Fold these 2 entries.
Entry 1:
Amino acid sequence: MKRLFAYPYILWMGIFIVVPLLLVVYYSVTATGPDGNTVFTFDHFRRFFAPITPGMDQPLRERIFVSVALRSIRLALQSTGICLLLGYPVAYIMTRKEYSEKSVLLFMLLVPMWMNFLLRTYAWLTILERNGLVNQLLTRLGLPMIDILYTDAAVLLGMVYNFLPFMILPIYTSLKKMDPRLIEAAQDLGAGGVSVFMRVVFPLSLPGVISGITMVFMPGAATFIISNLLGGQQYFLLGNLVEMQFLNVGDWHFGSAIAVIMMLLMVASMVILSLFDKGENQGRSTII
Amino acid sequence: MKKVLLLTIAVIAIATMAACGNRDQVTLRVFNWGEYNHPDIPRLFEEETGIAVFLDTFVTNQAMYSRIVDQGAEFDVLFPSDYMIERLILEGRLAPLNFDNIPNARYLHHYFFDLPYDPEGRYSMPYMWGMFGILYNTTMVQEPVYSWEILWNEQYARQIYMYAAARDTLGVALKLLGYSHNTRDITQLHAARDLLIAQRPLVRAYQGDLIRDSMIANGAALAPIFSGCAWYTMGENEDLNFVVPIEGTQFFVDAMVIPVTSRRQAEAEQFINFMMRPDIALMNAEWIGYSTTNTAALEMLPDDWRESQIYWPTDEILARGEMFRDLGDFRQEFYDAWMMVLVGAGG
């Protein structure tokens, strides 16, 4: 009987995840041949990695699509790093016993998520605009204006803003599950504040940190809305490239090939992270 | 266990069918640009005819094409631009209009009788029109604006918006170089592409509709924009002005067409006729701010609209316009060039 309840989900997964995935893979390795029939080919993948001359004045042949991919990875890594640096202390503070307002903090973290992600990103346009809220405030205070809208700083800001809760929540959960007696035990054994954190708290929270990293890095590497709105299409990312192939150019084959490359990238990063996770499990058993 | 599953599926199926009940109600599916008709249009049409209107919107001609062709969405009335209509006609995707059902076609202005994309006017009913030009903020740009070249002036670095659409923006560079924006010469196209790549450091952003609001809020100095859009922004911010550059530009027409896949052609024609009725055409024109194609509506517009060179360009300015044509197989070259501009050398 238990299995019966899994059927709706299996059906759902089959229709909306497995089939589309297979279609994407199919499109990525086929092309329309000269006589109109479908032929098998790896040309779309070759095209992605091939060097292209960007302009006539530039004899240098650049691997343009690869550099777009590198730019996406760099921005995703940067936003993950910032989210971790900002998010870990917040999650840590929220679990402190003496912090009685922790429910207020959690609430404040969740409230913005009730609003649509697109609307929140649009709101940043108004805030960062040349005559937007930030600059009006700076002018009132007699400070020079800043103009970061449509730069990679704005894209990074948008990513951190949108993905920060996905870093805080898993870390918070794993810290909260932790047995406080472990900390007391460490203190009894003469560990100072820093070494309690470094040798007990942080290692025990690693599963949360790793799922936080996964949940920030992946949407970060795949985003196109944030770079569209806050980057003004100046900072073309992999997501933008896929969007363009499907919505403007109409080249579903190349678009699918880029999507497959993105998925492989995600799988690779998950494999790397799971290695960390395993190493940690062994480490934990020695601690306890 | 299987019985339970079957029962569930049966219940869901029956519920779905019941939801689609109400079959006597005819619904017309209309696909228009965003904010390109008065918001009351669906309600007014339904009140008069009993035909409900389902309105969906698109952002670019390519997006519309992709939606109806690649994704197979079914619509009864579309509002594409000239060159896209030409492509749809060539590909056999449009149904000829039955003008017996569109008596209000007599209000069509003579400018739109013989247009290259639909020479006999059999497939399309022109709706709005305009020209592409430069919108600029007179408090930020003191020198006279008359040429596309000002968009390459380093003095305005990071104060220039460019329109995020392949043909329109490559068209600007082609015109500045003295070529036709319908060129099929790869050397000319690549020269235009390189010009745009060189311009990248000066560009604040490649945007679509957001340019309008930002220009109203004094967000940038210069932006290529459609005349109708410019006319609207100038009503909101009096520091803005609009110029059709001397090198030439696009003269465009957005028209109403019916795809062959529509099963409600008579109702679709009824809708087109409704949109051409003088009072409705006036309502749309005043609300959108784009130039109307309807002679009766034009006469009813306020004097300052009709006398404005921006709303209704003089013959001299009109002569600077060239219509976009469908590029056939060369289309792909434009997309590739545009992708190079966006991916760009910089960044």
Note: The first helix of chain B runs from residue 2 to 19.
Entry 2:
Amino acid sequence: MSLLIGALTIGFILSLLALGVLISFRIFSFPDITAEGSITLGAAVTAAMLVKGVNPLVATAAAVLSGFLAGAATGVLHTRFKINGLLSGILVMTSLYSINLHVMGRSNIPLMSARTLVTYAEHLGRLLLGGADNVSVAGWEVGARDVSVLGFSFVAALLVGLVLFTFFRTDLGTAMRATGDNSQMVRALGVSDADMIVFGLAVSNGLVGLAGALLAQYQGFADVQMGIGMLVWGLASVIIGEALVGVRQLGYLLAGAVMGSVLFRLMVAIALRWGLDPNDLKLITAAFVFVALILPGLVDKMRTRSAAHA
Amino acid sequence: MRRLSLGLFLIAAASSILLISDWKQRRAPTGHLPRVAILQHVSQGIIDEGVRGIVDALAENGFVDQKTILLRRYNAENDMATANAIAKEVTSGQFDLIVTATTISLQSVASANKAGPNNGGRVKHVFGLVSDPFAAGVGISRENPLDHPKHLTGLGTMQPIRETFDVARKLDPDLKTVGTVWNPAEANSQANLKLARAVSKDLGIDLVEATAENSSGVLEAANSLISRGAQAIWIGGDVTVLVSIDSVVAAARRGRIPVFTSVPGNAPKGALFDLGANYYELGRLIGNLGARVLKGTDPATVPVENVVPQKVMVNLTALAGLRDHWRLPQDLLASADTVIDAAGTHSKAAAVTQPSKKWNVQVVELNNVLDVEETERGILKGLDESGLVKGRHYDIQFRNAQGDMATLNGLVDAAIAAGADLLLTLSTPTLQAAIQRSQGKVPIVFTYVSSAIAAGAGTSDDHHLPFVTGTTLTPPNEEMIAIIRQVLPSARRIGTLFVPSEVNMVFAKDGLVKAAAKAGIEVEALGVATSSEVPDAALALMSRNVDALCQIPGNLTAAAFGGIAQAAERKKIPVFAFQTSQAKEGAPVVLARDYFDNGRAAAAMAARVMRGESPAQMPFVPDAKTKLMINIKAARAVGLNIPAALLAKAAEVIKE
């Protein structure tokens, strides 16, 4: 049960990463690999501030801002200096590696004794649950702490999703979406597509930075290597989510990305729980992603077939 | 909403799969766990020991209190009325199994447990620590060990009275008169006496009896024996008398005669020797039987047998001042489990306590590299050497996050969900994730960490989180610098490559700089990020006017060490290294911490935790062992002379 709660929690936290990836890759069709560096940047900034006793809310906001700046840097490299989008991402990501080391001062910062948003969530949860250390969910003993953190990460994902949904329906948001769909048309309409791309990448990486900040607070440490491989899994979540909802309408895409992230983490958790040969872990994860991708198609096929029969 | 349904359905399905895998973790509504009652009539050394054996054996069979069974222990405190009340309570139907220790508990439960169908008992009942169950009047036939009430089975343990008297005769061949005190109200004691009478008759010994109705009558009875000419006092399995054995010993001492018994545990109190049953072992046999019944064995099919695992205790100090000539032959001393002399108590095979349950040890690792594999081997070896038996005392499972830190948390969760009783972590992030996710519910032993304090596990080796302990692995910098000074007295600048993102390397680099500074040596450190940069970086480093390379240990530099060695050979600069594999790869001198040994040391600490020690009491242990390896061929290639004194110290010398 704690594994399920843990998987859901990480799924919701990393759904912020998936949402960020969704914005760059899907809405802007921009292959932005800055995310791999900015998730660590978010974690590093938060951790460095938390150990200095900064308020967790401020530290988390700083992480969002730092991610925002990192994304903007990639955007500027691409639009102002006409550097290929992929390469701009590589440049920023690579430099972030050193920047992260500088931000943290070393390669790993433990947050065992620091006050974090997670400890806030725990206090709040404990108040709501009447001070009990454990709650019983259908017979399982579950730590009140775990439940509150899960609730917190769920609310965070939900809020971010709603904000994004509202934002992308404002004029500015609509213009941003239009940039991704057809930049020539946007330019013809008198909107600067370059500004849109810079801003879009900034928002995207701001979200990724937030994911990193929450992840560091959840797992209790920031490590300079924690971003490695994250982008791939974020992308996998987005694509799984897309396959699940089957349409490219904004609301569904956002919901899909969150669901994809959660589902992906659940699958990893199942692979872990079954205690399969540790050497096969990645292979099995890949197999799960494969199944998640083809399953919606199969379901559709079955639907149409049964409709044809009827 | 319809479009979201597939995703939600899959999430629900995946969650259910996880929950079903965790089904066993579920704390079942309390009624569903088997309820077991353990009864004893009185608190006394041997009975407590027996009960301890019962509980341990149940746990070894997977029946752990609060986890897989609900265990209640009752003690009548030597009061018959209480015993009957307890018997009524435990047989009223709320228990699935009753285990009784002592004859009186057997009898009281057996009589309360009668009203079941076919006059069988309502509750299954396993008994033990009973001298003569056939004489206890509970319907067990002496002739046919399978003829007993259907719900009832157990072990009889007749005290080895014949053996006891044989030994007594050997110690004093002139022994003619032996006295004994006993309580006729104890069925147990009656059975003992009956046998003792027969035995002494066979040996031509006159058995003088005195009875005591309760403990206060024991002293008087013992005194009477001395005035009736007893040359020694023997005590059998009589609870009343054993409780006041001190009175018997005091009386005997006044009469300058020895006391010997058929029940272990009295020699430390002044008896000359005890030859009796090993009650802890006996308790374990009873516990195993109870576990079999819990697993479904029908008590009716289990014969009631007499089982006596023997135990001998000898007290040499009791020889002093005896009236008759008692000798203790060497063979008796050699066979004794415990010998007490003026210097103290000596136990054979200093009873190592074994874990009270089967431990589920979960090893969590971050990445797959050679060092981790070596540590793994060390862990397995160390657990083997600790005397713990895999499958009996512990099970072990290895989990590896394959370098993915987001997986690490899930991995620790999965280990805990799989019922981990102990987490063994490799690498700093693994330790941190384990601390965060277990929240102190599972003890953690770490290894493959260069500084647990930097990882946040404590403020010093002695002051740390109460559920965490382990071994740290710091490179032997001081020793290394001393070797460099010995081999290259003129060295003033040494160089090393390091990977800023490897926390261990940064730590190692700082350590090296500090140690070198003490010896007046400067360290030139150059950062690298990928293995492809290593050869170039090595060349760059050597063009910075360094006298030698002193390569600190790290994952990346280990993987690309060939590049470093080649560059050094070209520039004729010697390399001193810290990892065993690097001696073969061209480092003339290697002074290594052994990952294998470090794993072994961590396993030894894990074994201590399994044996009941609290990690809070165990300081973090820096690994102290080093292994010196010298590659003569590589030394010659760079024109390095290895002093004979150093060669002599090397654990391994590579010539070709």
Note: Residues 35 and 95 of chain B are 5 Å apart (CA to CA).
